[in-house]
């Protein structure tokens, strides 16, 4: 309830600025002042927003290499109408305007990116602040914008060295402290973070170079409890009221005490000769995750066909669900595991601009590659005896359960087995050529014509291997230790996981070479190829209508795509065989953006946008893999599950209307409405199809009807003369689009947040900086796992961050910050059932650092 009240508190701020703006305008005197720091970034961002012909949100750097947050993901999550899901305690994938990551387009310097996710979504936390000068979030479409973002297209910008004067360098070094590490023995509590950027110009400022780097070794810590779901159809009557009581399948707890090591490097060169400019850039990011984990699994309490009725006691039944009870004679397993994940991203690009008479020409050639290798090594041990498990999972984050036996004694468990679960390898390659031409003209309201063409080729593939290893030798009890974590039952863990497992299972236990792939492994592999071509024409406008000056653009983009999905097919559990399918489509995407100036000073703007946008299907859902059951009677349909290489893109006909008042430098009051009519929405369902010439009833992703998404966005932002500043936003979004699961009570569309808002207050004076921000979102549906359609509801959250800085000298700055100050937990609710929750705690994070600028 407190979180819901915060959303209305944020909304109430928009009643304040009208009177404040007029009073401030009268009191402010015109002065020539040097503006830097937070105030400078605010003004620069608003200047870009005001000048843009599209409706945009902008993040601008305070100074060279100095974005307001550690990664761009944290900054994006604070923008109006945007938020983010959390991964390993970090802001990661963006949600915008009621739509999830599948509707978010992402580009780096205008170039589409390969990703290490199975679909198309980009994890924005991979981009540290040192590598970027800012970001532009396009909420409306224009013909020249790369297609792919129905909700938004987010363009990340790298530094442009020729726009700076003289040699500059900036370095930072931080010490980070993770408070949750105090609760977890053996966890890393502190970590370093370093980064910097250097740029210079040569040969009379005709050549500019920039080099940026970052490195951090972040602890990956969490405490987690998870409900496995309920036996909905084959339980029994436990309390004698004649009704079946739905019983849990089981529970698990989990502790992670790992590291998330990330590094990146950016190189960029620009050469200018007259009106010609040639630039080349390279970005490389590497992430290495090593996560030792400890888990307990306790199941066998599902009361299948009422077989365990006599073992149940202390019942707490709510709405037909057994939210609490005790069950006798239940076993458990202890899992001492290691998650290993390596991710690499490389983006290369060359861009050339020149003039030929009245024409301005541009060519851009780019390629990007992403790879991900991961493996879960699970040392699994089952208890020798049983006990009485007791639990109380009553919702609202309450998750209490006891195992009823000594889980911290190695003697209480049988010998271990080693499970290597999904040694997975993903690869994504994307190449693009983009050509543009523009010239100024004077024909009525048209002052410029733009034309362009783009060609792309993308190939994404995934394969996995799963196996088990029996021990070659026993692991002595002396190799184990008992790990006591607050709020969890004791665990047993190897003192030296690598040495003990090598001795017991052999040095090659984790090598997939020579391990045959299981039936499921073969069916899980896939390759998707996609070729695209697009053409666009756009007219930039500047004129007068109804006595008001206006500017904007109107154009059309035509997109043609050919796609092929490959995979394996199994019939009745038989040997998998190769299968391939595909389709092609052509879409026409018109767009109009108009900005009407409501006064002579052009401070008040009325903005209107009408467009059609598209978002392509997630790549992993376009796989051709099938697992089918075949009835001997040819009149009976095939049944099973499959990918769908014939998926078409999701479309949206959309209209945006906004009133923006730039009533002072660094000040904005804005109110906007948007409406999107989505068609061909992709959801997982069972549909009637024809496969290999035979009727089939298959569960797979399918283009459906869709529906509408509508919302309102309010923004108030102001920099006061007393060096105080405030930035606030609130968005309300509604939709009639629903997912296809769970049956009978489907989720709303993935990403829909009814309430979303934020408040940031900052102060800057005499070398001091202070900033505090609070960002809230109501519950929304998300897919936090790799599996398509694994939807859960992410409960409402409020994240609070504080930061302070002081210039010790003109070039040296001391900084201190706190993230997640209120220790906000992440809560997932499954199947629209309030008693089926997963709760994860990441804890607070502190940083202390120095920045040095030359």
From TrEMBL:
Gene3D superfamilies (alphabetical): TonB-dependent receptor, beta-barrel domain, TonB-dependent receptor, plug domain
Keywords: Cell outer membrane, Membrane, Receptor, Signal
Subcellular localization(s) per the UniProt record: Cell outer membrane
Outer membrane protein beta-barrel domain mapped to chain residues: 548-851
TonB-dependent receptor plug domain segment(s): 51-146
Family: Belongs to the TonB-dependent receptor family.
Species whose genome carries this gene: Massilia frigida
Name of protein: TonB-dependent receptor
Pfam families with a match to the protein in the record: OMP_b-brl_3, Plug
NCBIfam families on file: TonB-Xanth-Caul
PANTHER family: PLUG DOMAIN-CONTAINING PROTEIN, TONB-DEPENDENT RECEPTOR-LIKE BETA-BARREL DOMAIN-CONTAINING PROTEIN
Entry keyword annotation includes Ligase: no
Keyword Membrane in record: yes
Superkingdom per UniProt: Bacteria
Matches recorded under InterPro entries: Beta-barrel_TonB_sf, OMP_b-brl_3, Plug_dom, Plug_dom_sf, TonB_rcpt_bac
Signal peptide limits: 1-25
Main location class: membrane
């Amino acid at each position: 309830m407190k979180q819901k009240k915060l959303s209305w508190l944020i909304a109430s701020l928009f009643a304040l600025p009208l009177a404040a703006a007029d009073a401030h305008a009268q009191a402010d005197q015109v002065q020539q002042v040097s503006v830097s720091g937070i105030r400078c970034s605010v003004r620069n961002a608003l200047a870009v927003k005001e000048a843009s012909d599209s409706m945009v949100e902008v993040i601008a750097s305070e100074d060279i290499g100095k974005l307001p947050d550690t990664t761009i993901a944290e900054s994006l999550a604070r923008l109006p109408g945007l938020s983010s899901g959390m991964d390993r305690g970090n802001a990661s994938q963006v949600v915008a305007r009621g739509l999830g990551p599948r509707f978010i387009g992402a580009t780096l310097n205008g170039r589409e990116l390969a990703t290490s996710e199975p679909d198309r979504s980009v994890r924005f936390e991979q981009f540290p602040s040192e590598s970027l000068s800012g970001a532009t979030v396009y909420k409306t479409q224009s013909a020249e914008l790369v297609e792919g973002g129905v909700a938004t297209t987010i363009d990340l910008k790298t530094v442009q060295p020729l726009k700076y004067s003289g040699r500059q360098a900036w370095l930072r070094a931080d010490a980070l402290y993770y408070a949750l590490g105090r609760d977890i023995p053996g966890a890393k509590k502190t970590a370093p973070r370093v980064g910097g950027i250097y740029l210079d110009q040569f040969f009379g400022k005709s050549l500019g170079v920039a080099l940026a780097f970052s490195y951090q070794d972040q602890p990956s810590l969490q405490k987690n409890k998870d409900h496995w779901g309920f036996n909905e159809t084959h339980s029994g009557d436990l309390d004698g009221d004649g009704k079946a009581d739905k019983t849990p399948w089981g529970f698990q707890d989990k502790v992670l005490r790992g590291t998330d090591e990330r590094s990146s490097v950016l190189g960029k060169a620009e050469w200018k000769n007259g009106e010609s400019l040639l630039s080349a850039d390279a970005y490389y990011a590497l992430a290495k995750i090593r996560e030792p984990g400890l888990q307990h699994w306790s199941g066998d309490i599902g009361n299948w066909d009422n077989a365990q009725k006599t073992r149940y006691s202390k019942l707490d039944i709510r709405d037909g669900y057994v939210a609490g009870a005790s069950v006798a004679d239940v076993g458990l397993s202890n899992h001492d595991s290691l998650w290993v994940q390596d991710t690499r991203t490389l983006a290369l690009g060359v861009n050339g601009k020149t003039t030929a008479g009245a024409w301005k020409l541009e060519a851009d050639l780019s390629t990007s590659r992403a790879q991900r290798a991961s493996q879960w090594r699970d040392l699994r041990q089952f208890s020798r005896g049983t006990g009485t498990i007791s639990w109380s999972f009553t919702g609202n984050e309450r998750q209490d359960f006891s195992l009823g036996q000594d889980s911290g004694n190695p003697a209480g468990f049988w010998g271990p087995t080693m499970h290597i679960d999904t040694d997975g390898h993903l690869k994504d390659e994307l190449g693009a050529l983009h050509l543009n031409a523009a010239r100024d003209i004077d024909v009525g309201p048209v002052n410029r014509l733009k034309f362009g063409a783009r060609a792309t080729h993308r190939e994404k593939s995934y394969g996995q291997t799963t196996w088990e290893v029996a021990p070659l030798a026993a692991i002595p009890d002396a190799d184990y230790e008992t790990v006591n974590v607050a709020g969890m039952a004791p665990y047993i863990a190897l003192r030296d996981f690598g040495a003990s497992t090598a001795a017991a299972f052999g040095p090659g236990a984790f090598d997939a070479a020579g391990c045959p792939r299981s039936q499921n492994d073969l069916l899980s592999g896939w390759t998707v190829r996609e070729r695209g071509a697009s053409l666009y024409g756009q007219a930039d406008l500047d004129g007068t209508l109804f006595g008001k000056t206006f500017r904007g653009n109107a154009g059309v983009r035509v997109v043609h795509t050919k796609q092929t999905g490959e995979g394996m097919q199994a019939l009745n559990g038989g040997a998998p065989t190769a299968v391939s399918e595909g389709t092609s489509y052509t879409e026409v995407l018109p767009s109009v953006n108009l900005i009407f100036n409501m006064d002579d000073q052009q401070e008040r703007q009325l903005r209107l946008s009408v467009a059609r946008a598209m978002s392509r299907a997630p790549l992993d859902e376009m796989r051709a893999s099938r697992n089918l059951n075949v009835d001997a009677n040819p009149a009976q349909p095939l049944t099973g599950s499959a990918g769908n290489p014939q998926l078409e893109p999701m479309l949206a006909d959309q209209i945006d209307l906004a009133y923006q008042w730039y009533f002072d430098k660094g000040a904005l009051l804005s109110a906007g409405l948007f409406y999107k009519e989505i068609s061909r929405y992709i959801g997982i369902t069972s549909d009637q199809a024809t496969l290999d010439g035979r009727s089939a009833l298959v569960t797979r992703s399918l283009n459906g009807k869709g529906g509408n998404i509508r919302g309102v966005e309010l923004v108030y932002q102001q920099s006061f003369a007393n060096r105080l500043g405030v930035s606030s936003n609130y968005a309300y979004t509604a939709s009639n689009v629903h997912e296809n699961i769970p049956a009978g009570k489907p989720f709303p569309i993935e990403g829909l947040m009814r309430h979303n808002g934020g408040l940031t207050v900052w102060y800057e004076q005499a070398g001091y900086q202070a900033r505090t921000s609070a960002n809230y979102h109501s519950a929304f549906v998300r897919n936090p796992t790799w599996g398509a359609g694994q939807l859960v509801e992410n409960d409402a959250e409020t994240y609070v961050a504080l930061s302070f800085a002081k210039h010790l000298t003109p070039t040296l700055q001391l900084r201190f910050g706190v993230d997640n100050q209120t220790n906000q937990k992440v809560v997932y609710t499954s199947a629209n059932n309030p008693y089926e929750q997963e709760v994860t705690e990441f804890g607070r994070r502190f940083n202390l650092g120095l920045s040095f600028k030359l």
